[in-house]
User: Which sequence fits this backbone?
């Protein structure tokens, strides 16, 4: 009866609880290490993606700059041609008028 009373008051074997505690502690350590590895991998992937985005942005900036330079040259040449044509028109108009 005394044994049953002890078992009823404390139904778990202390050795079993200690073993369970050690197993849970080891599992906790393993899970913590796995979590740190996952965080490290996520950090590395994020860093790589950010570098790719920065490279793409830099490439886009360079492309836009080249396009702007070409447009500036094109409009500059067009403006010069327009001025020459206007100048030639003025010369011929003036020459025709003075004759």
Assistant:
């Amino acid at each position: 009866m005394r044994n049953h009373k002890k078992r009823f008051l404390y139904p778990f074997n202390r050795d079993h609880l200690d073993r369970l505690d050690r197993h849970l502690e080891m599992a906790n350590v393993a899970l913590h290490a796995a979590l740190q590895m996952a965080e490290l991998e996520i950090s590395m992937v994020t860093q790589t993606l950010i570098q790719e985005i920065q490279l793409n942005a830099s490439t886009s900036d360079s492309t836009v700059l080249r396009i702007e330079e070409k447009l500036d040259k094109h409009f500059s040449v067009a403006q010069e041609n327009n001025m020459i044509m206007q100048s030639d028109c003025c010369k011929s108009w003036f020459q025709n008028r003075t004759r």
User: Anything to note?
Assistant: The chain has two helices and no strands.
